Amino acid sequence: MALLILAGHYLRSFAPPFMVLYLLLPVLLLVRRSWAVRVVQAALFFGSLEWVISALSLVGERRALREPYGRAAGILAGVAAFTVLAAMLLETAGPRHRYGLRTGRFFQTAPKDTD
């Protein structure tokens, strides 16, 4: 869903190459390889950055025109959080098993000393 919302954003922004990219990314998840999930996650994180940039731009424009901006900023912050959550959900047990994902040492706990 987050990828489709990003595709709609790029359609409205008149950026057809990005729109097509975000429309095709869900198809990439049909490939059962870890790199496919990582590509989708990276696209989602870059998409969340796009939401933050759009929010900052919108807030700046509305403040300059002395129009209310709180609701728009809240909506875009929520969409950015939803997009990050979508990327993080690809790290849960189901996708990890399906795509054979491994967690790096950064996330693993150290074994306990048995001295």
Which tags fit this structure?
115 residues, mainly alpha, 5 helices
Total number of helical segments? 5
Query: Which secondary-structure class do the elements indicate?
Result: mainly alpha
Give the DSSP E fraction (strand runs of 2 or more residues). Answer: under 5%
Distance between the termini: 50 Å
Q: Could you tell me the radius of gyration in angstroms?
A: 18 Å
Identify the overall geometry.
Answer: flat
* Total domain count: 1
Q: Short summary of the structure?
A:
The protein contains five helices and no strands.
Can you put this structure into words, describing what you see?
This protein is mainly α and 115 residues long. The protein is 71% helix and 0% strand. It has one domain. The protein has five helices and no strands. The termini are far apart. The mean pLDDT is 88.
Task: Please write out the topology.
Layout: H1 2-12, H2 16-28, H3 34-64, H4 70-89, H5 93-99
